[in-house]
Specification:
Length: 993
């Protein structure tokens, strides 16, 4: 999909900071797990970490002996003593990136893959425009569990568990903790790829106002952000506190025409007029006889005609007369957010501490899509009658001459058309989403050793997406016009009585406002989504007993009840299939799950030769779903520190993901797929892979006996339909995860240095997916297995395929393995007062990434050729920060290695199309992006900052639309991976009162 290479010339243009950054990247020799652990509010900095906090191990928020609860466990332990790698990104690191959307920060972490949804890949969605999701290990955002303060957050998409992180204000985040690998035994379903836990700020005094704005070097795609955070503690010894944040954020997006790479339509023919759409704004028309294009009589090339901008007639359809769709498309969608968040707590005593968290978010987003391409064959099934009074005079005269020349094959009985509906309606979406969530409960310490918590969470999403649309029944009436008593009217008398206005499509801007209003649907095409989530949970943790000198056995025990509901309600015309989209039914579903879970930590040895420490850990969860029944997940691991400063860790987990509401309950939705039947053309004697299996089908044999062969017409092919839908017989996905690594903290040997190297191996079986329709057809013939043949329906009398369905089944598999490395180093330089340098580098090296849609499908990906634009062989991020006297300088780099972006039907390594241009583009060079920031502490409580992202204005790779697998429509690149904006400047200030 994307790769970008770092050339020596590029490096020569960097500063000394760039050299330091690159040197640090080269020095880290493993693959990195997420990074930087930020400190808790008012806690001392970790030695060697300074203020720029990014680490793959949990933060230590106090003395080394202090125990805290970190993501991946419910048992308190020392920050670096986690058996599972935990990546932490702190508030300071978020600020160093000048990011206002937390997705932009997390996307740079090596273990975070291509987002399922972002503002650069959601422009063409019917809903979900501008939604931001997290995809760990490229296993899918539905397999990444997102938490806020360790608790679930309501889903941002209909019928799923996928969280829209647009609902989490960046300025309200204290730190983000990321665990990759199966964590279902700790947190339940969806944690196959891992967990992202947003820990919000808690205790805060005063008022902070932060404002920021930015724009690209080309003067477009502006962003604005203002955030106000206020807090107050109260009571004796600050036993209570409240903190609130309001954030307003606006990203105005970017039009495709604003970048040369995407200013014009592209195809296998290249970019420019030759690739423009044949559905032109002025129309493309063709003379037909009984549904077949007539000959070239009359001087019209292939009997095509169109119009000049002055609406004079043009013979044929010359290059350049098509429609440039990219002129109105977007690279990124505009998103406007209003976010309000508040947390409050009151400690009645150590045994009883009350808390409440509240969130309300309103998001406005929109897309920009070219007007609808209406075709007489594809949408209406018929074109203009030859008595239509809007037909240009010269064309009417030609039709009359042809129909009276005595040559039947030369007759014309219809004019087909393709035309863009510019005057009629815009099909661009407008979305308004409202999300609110309340989490409340109490916790405390019992008997001075047992920590407990009881909580309740309620979340709700309402999403309304709407756009204009056509009523195809009315359109058919308006198209069928006649001349009556000197006036042009609709032919159908009932339609005329109901207000029908005839429509003229011959030329630019010929459809009158009255006709356009008539053919538009009375109600907009709209989708209304409502998700609700309720979670009640309780757990208790603490020491049980001690039977060895290494320390007490720690345990955690808990229970949880969760209820999810979702409704996806479409307008009546969409339900009936009477507008320009496919027929889509509503989806309504719900489920509940009851769970019990436990965790155990057993210290075995401590402070003896070769065993500085040795311990074992394990966890298990039993779940009872109202939909799929019982599910069991577990993990087991251990840690061994042979000497001080060196600790080995490992963990094995069996995780799961229960099918979501969409996968279970979505009703069949009709589509018209493009498929081919291997039996097409088969005769009684023909050979080939499937010929014998075809002749064995009674209907096919009957047609061959009757006609000599089974031969499809264009109408037969276009008439094949299919239904996508849920499956209430689905079961859970299952994953097996291995992590193993080493944590190095040299201490006195190299003060300020920490490093982690961790191996990961994740395999997902029974993954929910669909069997490719073409695969179903071919494998049914080859194997007769029901998982394929149940999807294919043939006419019993003729053998022709009539329907090919694609229902969700537990049939796919995914595998990935690799190495994460994280290196951090910091020290005071002593060259100037209070000067300090901090460095961190994160590197993920992927050994394997493979997906298989079903057991008969080819395996995508491989060890030596990571393809399809999904996973980079190497992804590295690094940052070096120098601070002195209130001035901070920060330089960061992100490296994306070489990638193959092969076509989806070419899975072999080093395969080629034969087109050197396409094959050259399929191999995408690596890229190195640079960002820089400088901060100034003007005076106490006032900070000013300036930054530049993509300092050297690195361009994205060019991937022509429809040719490459990873291309995002309208961007001519993989805009969700490579930077499509170019150099961006931003500036801001922060005041604290």
């Amino acid at each position: 999909m994307n790769r970008t290479s770092c050339s020596l010339a590029t490096l020569r243009h960097g500063s000394a900071l760039a050299v330091l950054s690159l040197a640090g990247l080269l020095a880290s020799t493993g693959t990195a797990m997420a990074q930087a652990a930020p400190q808790a509010v008012d806690s001392p900095a970790v030695a060697g970490q300074g203020n720029d906090q990014v680490a793959t191990t949990p933060p230590q928020t106090g003395p080394a002996s202090e125990e805290v609860v970190v993501t991946g466990s419910r048992i308190a332990r020392r920050g670096l003593d986690s058996a599972t790698p935990v990546a932490v990104v702190g508030n300071e690191e978020i600020r160093r990136q000048g990011a206002t959307n937390i997705q932009d920060v997390l996307a740079k972490l090596p273990q975070v893959g291509i987002p399922g949804l972002s503002n650069t890949n959601s422009n063409f969605l019917t809903s979900g425009n501008g939604v931001a999701t997290i995809n760990l290990r490229n296993l899918g955002d539905s397999r990444t569990l997102v938490l806020v303060n360790g608790r679930r957050f309501v889903a941002g998409l209909a019928g799923t568990s996928v969280v829209d992180v647009n609902n989490i204000p960046a300025d309200f985040i204290d730190r983000v903790e990321v665990v990759t690998g199966g964590a279902s035994s700790i947190y339940g379903s969806d944690a196959i790829a891992g967990v992202v836990n947003f820990v919000l700020k808690k205790d805060f005094e005063g008022l902070t106002v932060r404002a920021q704005t930015g724009i690209t070097s080309r003067g477009d795609s502006p962003k604005y952000n203002i955030s106000v955070t206020g807090g107050q503690t109260f009571g004796s010894d600050s036993q209570g506190g409240i903190i609130a944040n309001f954030t307003y954020d606006r990203d105005e997006g970017l039009l495709s025409r604003k970048r040369s790479i995407s200013a014009e339509d592209c195809s296998s023919l290249g970019c420019g007029p030759q690739s423009y759409s044949s559905y032109a704004a002025q129309g493309r028309f063709q003379l037909y006889n009984g549904g077949v294009a007539t000959g070239n009589a009359g001087g019209y090339a292939s009997n095509l005609f169109t119009f000049n901008p002055d609406n004079s007639l043009v013979s044929g359809f010359p290059s350049g007369y098509g429609y440039n769709r990219n002129a109105v498309r977007r690279i990124s969608t505009p998103v406007e957010r209003y976010l309000g968040s508040a947390n409050a707590h009151y400690d009645v005593s150590d045994a009883l501490k009350l808390f409440v968290e509240g969130t309300y978010v309103r998001t406005n987003a929109s897309s920009a899509i070219e007007p609808y391409a209406l075709g007489s064959d594809t949408d209406l099934g018929f074109g203009f009658g030859i008595d239509n009074p809007f037909i240009p005079l010269s064309i009417r005269q030609q039709i009359a001459a042809r129909n009276s020349d005595g040559i039947a094959s030369n007759d014309v009985d219809e004019i087909s058309f393709r035309r863009r509906q510019n005057e009629v309606f815009s099909r661009s979406n407008n979305s308004r989403r409202e999300t609110w969530r309340v989490a409340t409960g109490f916790n405390g310490t019992l008997a001075d050793k047992f920590n407990y918590e009881v909580s309740y969470v309620h979340g709700e999403l309402k999403d309304h997406t709407f756009t204009q649309d056509l009523d195809l029944t009315k359109y058919a009436n308006a198209l069928d016009a006649i001349s009556l008593n000197g006036q042009i009217v609709c032919r159908d008398t009932a339609a005329r009585a109901a207000g029908c206005v005839p429509i003229n499509l011959f030329g630019y801007n010929t459809a009158s406002p009255q006709a356009s209003a008539y053919v538009a649907s009375d109600i907009p095409r709209e989708e209304r989504i409502k998700n609700t989530e309720d979670v009640v949970s309780a757990n208790i943790a603490g020491p049980l007993f001690q039977f060895l000198a290494a320390g007490p056995v720690q345990a955690s025990l808990g229970a949880e009840y969760r209820r999810e509901k979702s409704s996806d309600d479409w307008d009546a015309l969409t339900n009936a299939g009477q507008n320009t989209g496919n027929q889509i039914p509503d989806t309504i579903g719900k489920f509940n799950v009851k769970e019990v879970f436990g965790e155990l930590q057993v210290p075995l040895l401590k402070d003896v030769p070769f065993f500085e420490s040795l311990s074992l850990q394990g966890a298990a969860r039993y779940s009872d779903y109202s939909t799929i029944g019982n599910v069991f997940s577990w993990n087991a691991g251990g840690e061994w520190a042979p000497v001080e400063g060196v600790r080995f860790r490992g963990n094995y987990a069996v995780a799961n993901r229960a099918p979501n509401i969409n996968e279970l309950f979505s009703p069949p939705a009709e589509t018209f797929p493009t498929v081919s039947d291997p039996c097409d053309g088969v005769t009684a004697t023909s050979g080939g892979t499937y010929a014998a299996a075809c002749r064995a089908l009674p209907g096919v044999a009957s047609t061959i006996a009757r006609n000599g062969s089974l031969t499809y017409t264009l109408a037969d092919i276009q008439g094949i339909n299919g239904f996508d839908g849920g499956n209430t017989k689905l079961q859970e996905e299952k994953a097996k995860t291995i992590t193993a690594g080493v944590v190095l903290t040299p201490g006195t040997l190299i003060p300020g240095l920490t490093a982690t190297i961790d191996y990961f191996d994740i395999k997902v079986d029974n993954a929910i997916g669909i069997v490719d329709r073409q695969t179903s057809i071919e494998q049914c013939l080859a194997t007769s297995l029901p998982q394929f043949c149940n999807n294919v329906l043939r006419n019993a009398n003729t053998g022709f395929i009539t329907t090919v369905n694609a229902q969700n089944v537990n049939i796919a598999s995914l595998k990935t393995k690799g190495l994460d490395t994280d290196v951090r180093y910091g020290r005071a330089l002593g060259l100037m007062a209070d000067d300090r340098i901090d460095f961190n580098a994160l590197w993920t090296h992927t050994f394997k990434y493979q997906t298989q849609a079903d057991p008969a499908a080819p395996v995508r990906g491989g060890v030596d050729n990571l393809e399809f634009g999904e996973v980079f062989r190497d992804k590295v991020t690094g940052r070096v920060t120098y601070t002195t006297g209130g001035v901070g300088l920060s330089w960061s780099t992100t490296f994306l290695s070489h990638m193959y972006d092969q076509l989806p039907d070419r899975f072999e390594e080093n395969s080629a199309t034969g087109d050197p241009v396409i094959d050259g583009h399929n191999s995408i060079k690596s890229r190195l992006y640079h960002d820089a920031q400088v901060t100034f502490d003007i005076e106490k409580g006032f900070e000013f900052f300036l930054g530049v992202n993509n300092v050297f204005d690195r361009k994205p790779p060019k991937l022509e639309d429809t040719v490459f697998y990873g291309t995002i429509t309208g961007t001519t690149t993989a805009a969700d991976v490579y930077d499509p904006f170019g150099r961006r400047f931003y500036a801001g200030a922060q005041f604290h009162f």
